[in-house]
């Protein structure tokens, strides 16, 4: 609505970003609003931007202190006789000349260096005399390596399957439950609704073990069904859809009954299409829940080939060593689908009930 | 052709009884109008016939078959709702085809019927539109179209015109009457507007507090109201109803209302010292000379409509009287006029509200 109301003068970006209250004068509320909005954007987007920028840094770039915003990292060279690549420095020698040396290790205020061209000789220089050689390098291998070497495409596929299938099942059975609880009037309807909502008060961690036992009994451990089925019915979803369906005029349902519609036809052809905005909201939620789900998949999926992305990410986190560059890059990958889903479905969130044709 | 019978139908919500045992027959091809003030149970009665409300006891019979336990979808009736209840996500065509699709009719037959109904109701140009892109009158037509494509046993209308503006209401009223003449189906129509009832109905059923106050042909109700409720409800402006005490006086009676006395001849059923209500419609009050007048009145308000005149008069001891006169009348506010109730058109009701006489012969 706000966009539709902008006049021609508001079309350019700068004009849009410096819009003021009526009169065109700066008022303290304008300043306050912009500061508030700027802080809000910083708070919301800062971490995401930081994550994306950092995901392109080399491991050395990530460890740099003070941290840099851009993927700036110290150049490392492979020196003969040393297993790990060594960081490269510009060293000002005592005679004033400047040499490119690789650092072997640092001892107190001294640094042991080696000339990559002449690996045999070790040189000791004070740390103040050296300056790291940095380069701006986009570490694409952070993305390529996990996707190629670590089976991440498989994880991605698993995640997509789990998310899609379970979202479809969730939408179907939740809307059916909501239909029953919204359209029919029967004794105990509210009690059942309360019971459904009441299950929200039981945290997942408490039912983890019993749920695991059930899943084991059904022989679903290490299959994707173990992740898909147990969470398919969500009290939040039933509640959300039911409250929305309550707003559908009763006349429409009765008109459909008079039109000889079966219960299934009323559900499928009248109530579902009219509940689309609520269903879209639930779809977004469901995709986010399933995509980001961690604890339950971690418990029931133990074999590498059924890992979802989130569990795969966890695999980069060893007991002693965390491969941050991979973790960050794959985190970005896992964020993309959720962002896309939200971008495409968010207009439904704001859509009210499709004009009901009622007066 | 469809006959609908209600036998001692009672409907209660919990302990609150809203329909108190109604017996009613709707003959085949009849246009029956349920009329009454809000809360009288007319819509509930319609929904009972439709099958949208379960009855507490009694029988609903359609074409000789008791349908108490047959759901709305299988009774073969069509209903037009007050809100129209068009499916907002479907086009006009789909709205009208929905009921036919549910009865598994072949596509070309559906197409034929929808187009025929659209032509009949002049909504052909809008078939591809959604309901929200239609005006109130067009929606109304679509709602009616949705009912007639199904070729139902009977049509039920639940205050279908109450959402339209006054002018459109008159137009649609005429169209409905024409439609009934053309289709000839059994129709039951609920309204609170007695003008609609009078103009459309073959039979009017006046409901009051969950009971049938009177059922009959419109003019029968107008001419021979069986109780004060019907007398007051049918006719616009309302009948003038005045409470009085009957006192025997020679061969006749005096009806004493405050300081006013109206002389009437002896009427069977009228007894000395009984409380009665007598009524006279505005058009049945004559302006006469002082000698033959029943009451003297002061004109409080005079509405000159050109072709007719309404006078609202104050009479000592009586409620305000409405007088209707044809033509233009040079009467001004504050003037005193002399009124006489036309005995042949005067209605007399007992203390219980039931009729004693419709028209008193002198």
What's the SSE blueprint?
The complex is a heterodimer of chains A (359) and B (362).
Chain A lengths: L1 H4 L7 H5 L10 H27 L4 H5 L8 E3 L1 E2 L8 E7 L5 E10 L2 E6 L2 E9 L3 E3 L1 E3 L4 H9 L2 H32 L5 H10 L5 H14 L7 H4 L6 H12 L3 H9 L4 H12 L1 H17 L2 H6 L8 H7 L8 H27 L9
Antiparallel strand pairs in A: 1-8, 2-3, 3-4, 3-7, 4-5, 5-6
Helix pairs in contact in A: 5-16, 6-10, 6-13, 6-15, 7-10, 10-13, 11-12, 13-16, 15-16
Chain B lengths: L3 E10 L2 E11 L4 E5 L6 H9 L6 E6 L2 E2 L10 E4 L11 H11 L4 H15 L14 H13 L5 E5 L7 H18 L2 E6 L2 H7 L2 E6 L2 E6 L1 H6 L4 H6 L6 E10 L2 E6 L2 E5 L10 E6 L4 E3 L7 E10 L3 E7 L6 E6 L9 E6 L5 E3 L5 E4 L4
Parallel strand pairs in B: 3-8, 3-9, 6-7, 7-8
Antiparallel strand pairs in B: 1-2, 1-4, 4-5, 9-10, 11-12, 11-14, 12-13, 14-20, 15-19, 16-17, 16-19, 17-18, 20-21
Helix pairs in contact in B: 2-3, 2-4, 3-4
Q: What is the C-level CATH assignment of the largest domain in chain B?
A: Alpha Beta
CATH topology of the largest domain in chain B: Rossmann fold
**Residues in helices of chain B, as a percent range:** 10-25%
Read across the widest sheet of chain B, the strand sequence of neighbours is: 6-7-8-3-9-10
Give me the CATH superfamily of the largest domain in chain B: P-loop containing nucleotide triphosphate hydrolases
Question: CATH superfamily assignment of the largest domain in chain A?
Answer: MetI-like
CATH class of the largest domain in chain A: Mainly Alpha
Tell me the fraction of residues in β-strands of chain B, as a range: 35-45%
**Low-confidence parts of chain B:** none
> What is the arithmetic mean of pLDDT of chain A?
83
The total strand number of chain A stands at 8
Oligomer: heterodimer
Which pair of chains forms the biggest interface, and how many residues does each contribute? A-B, 23 and 31 residues
Taken together, the total number of domains of chain A comes to 3
Q: Count up the helices of chain B.
A: 8
Structural class of chain A: alpha+beta
């Amino acid at each position: 609505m706000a966009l539709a109301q902008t006049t021609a003068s508001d079309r350019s970006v700068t004009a849009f970003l410096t819009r003021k209250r009526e009169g065109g004068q700066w008022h303290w509320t304008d300043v306050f609003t912009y500061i508030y909005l700027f802080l809000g954007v910083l708070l919301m987007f800062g971490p995401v931007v930081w994550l994306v920028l950092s995901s392109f840094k080399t491991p050395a770039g990530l460890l740099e202190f003070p941290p840099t915003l851009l993927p700036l990292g110290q150049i490392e060279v492979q020196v003969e006789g040393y297993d790990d690549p060594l960081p490269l420095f510009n060293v000002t020698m005592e005679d004033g000349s400047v040499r490119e040396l690789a650092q072997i290790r640092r001892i107190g205020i001294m640094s042991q260096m080696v000339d990559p061209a002449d690996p045999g000789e070790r040189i000791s220089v004070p740390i103040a005399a050296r300056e790291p050689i940095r380069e701006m390098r986009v570490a694409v291998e952070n993305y390529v390596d996990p996707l190629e070497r670590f089976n991440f495409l498989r994880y991605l596929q698993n995640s997509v399957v789990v998310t899609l299938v379970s979202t479809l099942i969730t939408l179907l059975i939740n809307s059916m439950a909501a239909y029953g609880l919204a359209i029919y009037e029967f004794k105990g309807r509210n009690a059942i609704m309360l019971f459904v909502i009441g299950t929200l008060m039981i945290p997942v961690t408490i039912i983890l073990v019993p749920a695991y036992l059930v899943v084991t009994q059904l022989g679903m451990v290490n299959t994707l069904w173990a992740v898909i089925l147990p969470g398919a019915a969500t009290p939040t979803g039933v509640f959300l859809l039911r409250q929305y369906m309550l707003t559908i005029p009763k006349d429409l349902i009765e008109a459909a009954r008079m039109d000889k519609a079966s219960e299934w036809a009323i559900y499928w052809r009248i109530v579902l299409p009219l509940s689309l905005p609520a269903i879209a909201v639930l779809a977004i939620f469901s995709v986010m829940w399933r995509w980001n789900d961690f604890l339950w998949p971690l418990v029931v999926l133990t074999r590498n080939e059924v890992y979802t992305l989130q569990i795969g990410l966890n695999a980069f986190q060893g007991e002693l060593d965390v491969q941050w560059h991979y973790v960050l890059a794959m985190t970005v990958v896992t964020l993309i689908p959720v962002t896309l889903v939200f971008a495409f479905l968010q207009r439904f969130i704001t859509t009210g009930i499709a004009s009901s044709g009622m007066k | 052709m469809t006959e609908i019978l209600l036998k001692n139908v009672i409907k209660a919500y919990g302990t609150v009884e809203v329909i108190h045992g109604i017996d009613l027959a709707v003959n085949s091809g009849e246009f029956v109008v349920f009329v009454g003030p809000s809360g009288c149970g007319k819509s509930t009665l319609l929904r009972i016939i439709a099958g949208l409300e379960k009855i507490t006891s009694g029988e609903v019979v359609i074409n000789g078959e008791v349908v108490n336990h047959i759901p709305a979808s299988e009774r073969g009736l069509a209903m037009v709702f007050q809100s129209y209840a068009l499916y907002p996500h479907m086009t006009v065509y789909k709205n009208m085809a929905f009921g036919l699709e549910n009865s598994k009719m072949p596509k070309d037959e559906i197409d034929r019927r929808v187009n025929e109904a659209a032509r009949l109701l002049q909504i052909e140009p809008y078939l591809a539109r959604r309901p929200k892109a239609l005006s109130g009158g067009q929606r109304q037509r679509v709602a009616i179209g949705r009912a007639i494509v199904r070729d139902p046993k009977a049509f039920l209308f639940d205050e279908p015109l109450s959402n339209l503006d006054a002018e459109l209401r008159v137009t649609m009223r005429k169209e409905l009457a024409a439609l009934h003449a053309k289709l000839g189906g059994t129709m039951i129509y609920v309204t609170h507007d007695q003008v609609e009832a009078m103009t459309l109905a073959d039979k009017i059923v006046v409901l009051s507090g969950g009971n049938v106050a009177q059922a009959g042909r419109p003019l029968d109700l107008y001419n021979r109201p069986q109780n004060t409720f019907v007398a007051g409800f049918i006719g616009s402006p309302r009948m003038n109803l005045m409470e009085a005490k009957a006192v025997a006086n020679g061969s006749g009676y005096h009806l004493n209302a405050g300081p006013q006395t109206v002389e009437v001849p002896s009427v069977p059923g009228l007894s000395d010292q009984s409380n009665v209500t007598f009524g006279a419609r505005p058009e049945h009050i004559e302006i006469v000379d002082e000698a033959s007048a029943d009451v003297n009145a002061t004109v409080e308000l005079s509405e000159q409509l050109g072709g007719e005149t309404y006078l609202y008069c104050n009479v000592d001891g009586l409620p305000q009287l409405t007088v209707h006169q044809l033509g233009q009348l040079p009467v001004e506010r504050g003037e005193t006029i002399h009124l006489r109730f036309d005995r042949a058109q005067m209605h007399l009701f007992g203390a219980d509200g039931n009729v004693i006489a419709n028209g008193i012969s002198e």
